[in-house]
From TrEMBL:
<dbReference type="InterPro" id="IPR038765">
    <property type="entry name" value="Papain-like_cys_pep_sf"/>
</dbReference>
<feature type="domain" description="Transglutaminase-like">
    <location>
        <begin position="173"/>
        <end position="239"/>
    </location>
</feature>
<dbReference type="Pfam" id="PF08379">
    <property type="entry name" value="Bact_transglu_N"/>
</dbReference>
<protein>
    <submittedName>
        <fullName>Transglutaminase family protein</fullName>
    </submittedName>
</protein>
<dbReference type="InterPro" id="IPR013589">
    <property type="entry name" value="Bac_transglu_N"/>
</dbReference>
<dbReference type="InterPro" id="IPR002931">
    <property type="entry name" value="Transglutaminase-like"/>
</dbReference>
<dbReference type="Pfam" id="PF01841">
    <property type="entry name" value="Transglut_core"/>
</dbReference>
Length: 285
């Protein structure tokens, strides 16, 4: 068990006072059998009316509404968690799903819904063909297949820090052979959906004790695939890892655009925005 303190600060600056529209904040981790939320706090300046709700996928969302114009918006979140995920988990997959191909039950198909369908077009079948290259026979071990795709993305795509907003399409990521963690996770998601797996996007924090303290925590994006009986299994193509060790999930969604930590706008011109700053720290206690 590891106890972690997560601090996430976001600051927006404007050239003059602007009227802020409601901001949607997804900053509190999702509790589970291997992650317990011990405490959480959220501070917003200028003062805001905070309304809490759960979205359709059970993510905890805070909506901040503002009454007065401001030239600076500061959002600070601090969370204390217990992380108990195993470094080498053993997944108890339903016997009928040990080998691929397999079929989900009617109930699973209904509940997975849009999470079974690729998010992006693949008109010439490039991504589908690339993904099928990992299926090395008429039947293959299901978990090994997913691990091979996860590792194969790391072989085909070089990681790079990308400051631009949005997520590259999987075809673009394959074509230029580089991308951010969110680009690599989006590639994994659409790839395994082409094979009939249910998959979803995850955003949250990374805690890696193998790196220096100054770089031991950051926001991160990865993917999860659903296997009968085992449930949702984390796949992190950026690091070639499987399982939830070192990962603190905050939100899950059909795609990355649904699970951004902070979204919102203001009334004014584009030139009114002068810049933003994000600081994240994940400290082991």
């Amino acid at each position: 068990m590891v106890k972690l303190r997560i601090r996430h600060d976001t600051i927006y600056r404007y050239r003059h006072a602007v009227l802020l529209q409601p901001h949607r904040l997804m900053l509190v981790p999702r509790g589970s059998h291997d992650l317990t939320i011990l405490s959480s706090s959220l501070d917003v300046s200028p003062k805001a009316d905070i309304a809490w709700a759960q979205d359709v996928l059970g993510n905890l969302v805070a909506t901040a509404s503002f009454a007065v114009p401001t030239d600076k918006l500061a959002i600070s979140s601090e969370v204390l968690v217990d992380q108990r995920a195993l470094a080498w988990p053993i997944y108890r997959i339903a016997p009928g799903a040990h080998t691929y191909p397999f079929g989900y039950s009617y109930g699973e198909m209904a509940d997975l819904g849009a999470l079974l369908h690729p998010e992006h077009d693949d008109p010439e079948g490039v991504l589908a063909t690339w993904t099928r290259s990992f299926v090395l026979g008429p039947t293959v071990d299901t978990l090994s297949l997913l691990k091979n795709i996860n590792n194969g993305i790391g072989d085909a795509v070089a990681y790079r820090t990308r400051e631009e907003e949005g997520t590259q399409s999987p075809l673009e990521t394959l074509s230029i052979a580089n991308g951010s963690c969110r680009d690599m996770s989006a590639l994994f998601i659409d790839a395994v959906r082409h094979l009939g797996f249910g998959a979803r996007a995850v955003s949250g924090y990374l805690h890696d004790p193998d790196v220096s303290l100054d770089d031991a925590g950051s926001t991160h994006a990865w993917a999860e695939a659903y296997l009968p009986a085992a449930g949702w299994i984390a796949f992190d193509p950026t690091h070639g890892r499987v399982g939830s060790a070192n990962l603190i999930p905050v939100a899950v969604g059909r795609c990355n655009t649904q699970i951004m930590p902070v979204t919102g706008g203001y009334a004014g011109d584009a030139e009114d925005f002068s810049g933003m700053e994000v600081r994240v720290g994940v400290e082991e206690l």
